[in-house]
Amino acid sequence: MNTALLYRLLGADPAAGPAELLHRARTGRHLPHLVLSALVRDGVRMGEPARAELHRARDRADAYARLADRLATSTGVRAIRGLPLAGYYPAGLLRPLESLDLVAPDEAALWQAVIRLVTDRPVERIEVSLFGDRPRHTAVTVHWPAEDPLVDPWFRVHLTTAALPGDGSAVPVRPFLVADAHVECLIALAETRLHGPVLPPGPVTLLDVAGLTRQPFEPAETAAVLAAYRLAPEAADLLDHAADHLPLGRLAAVRAALDPELDAEHRRRAGVRARRAPARRGTLLRRTVIRHTWDRARLLTPAPDTALLLTPVADYLLDPTPATPRTRATALRALHHWDAHHDTHC
Questions:
Q1: pLDDT tens-place string over residues 210-256
Q2: 81, 96, 157, 167 — which has fewest CB within 10 A?
Q3: Which ranges of 154-246 does DSSP label H, i.e. alpha helix?
Q4: How do 100-103 and 155-160 pair as beta strands?
C-alpha cells in the first residue's frame, strides 16, 4: 500500500507528478486526504494550504476515534466498517472516513448515543429510517458542519441496530457481527457489494483490501463465516476485482476456499420468493425538546395513509407515504393532538 498503488488506482501517470495525482483525487470528497497523507510520507513538497487541509482531515479522523471510544463506554455502541479498517493502514497513511459507522446492541443504546450527539454537538440534520420486519431495526444519521463547511466534508455519524442490513430481498438483516476484528472488516467490505449497482470497487475499498492482506486469516474458517453471513458471492467478487490491482497475500487462500460456497448461496437466493418489507425513511416534521426518558421511538398511524415516527429527538412522517400537503397537514394535526394529551418530555 503505497503511492505507486494510488497512481494505478486513480489512473494517474506517475510522470505527470503528484499534482496530477491530487487533481485526480479531487473527484472524491475524501480521497484528497488520503493522497495528501501519502505524499507527506514520501516527503513531497507542499504549501501551507495543502498541509492545512490534511491537518483538518487528521483532526476529523481523531475526533471520530475519540467519539467512538466515548460512546462505546457510555452507551455500548461500537464502531464498524471505516474506523476499524483505518487501523490496518500503514502508519501515517490516512484512510478517508466519510462517516463514523456505529452499531448499537439495541434501540435504547442507539437513542442514548443519538441524544449525546445532539446534546454535545451542533447537529443540523437527523435522518431516520426503519428496516427489517419482526424485529424492526432503526438507522439514524446525524450531520453537523465541519470547521469550514464549504471546503471540508460535514461530520456524519451513522448509527444502526443491525450491523448488516442485507439487501431487502434475498439477503436478510443480520443484526450481530461477531468474528475476529480483521474478519469482521472483510465481512463489512463484502456487505457493501450488496447495495446499489454492481460496479468495480473504488480506490478506497481496494486499499482496504490491501490493508487486510497480511492479517492472519484462516482460509476455511473465514470462508465458512462469510457463507454463514450470506456473503460468499460478494466476498469472492470483491477479491477477484482486488486481485487485478494488488497481491492478495493471505486473502488468496480465502478466495480459493470460497469456491465451494458459491453455488449453495446462489441456489439459496434463487429459492427466496417473498420480498421483505422495504425500508421506510422519515421526512422531518419537527425537532423536539429531547425526550430523555424515551428508550424507543413510537410509531403512530393517525390515518390509513399516514404513519408517524416519534423519536427522542425529532418527529417524522414515514415514507413510502408521499409527503403531500394533505398528509403533512394530517401528520401535524396528529402531533398537536399528541402534544395535548401526553407529556412529550417523558
A1: 999 999 999 999 999 999 999 999 999 999 999 999 999 999 999 99
A2: 167
A3: 181-192, 203-212, 219-228, 232-243
A4: parallel
CA dist., res. 243 & res. 241, Å (int): 5
Packing angle, helices 18-25 and 3-10, rounded to 10? 50
Query: Nearest to residue 226, comparing CAs of 287, 297, 167, 174?
Result: 174
State the greatest distance between any 2 C-alpha atoms of the chain, in Å, as a whole number: 71
pLDDT digits (tens, 9 = 90+) for 186-195: 999 999 998 7
| Three-state secondary structure call for residue 139 | strand
- Burial of 183 from C-beta contacts in 10 A (0-12 / 13-18 / 19+): buried
DSSP letter at 174 equals B
pTM for the full model?
0.92
Tell me: pLDDT of 198 over 90. Answer: no
C-alpha cell of 22? 491530487
CA distance 50 to 35: 11
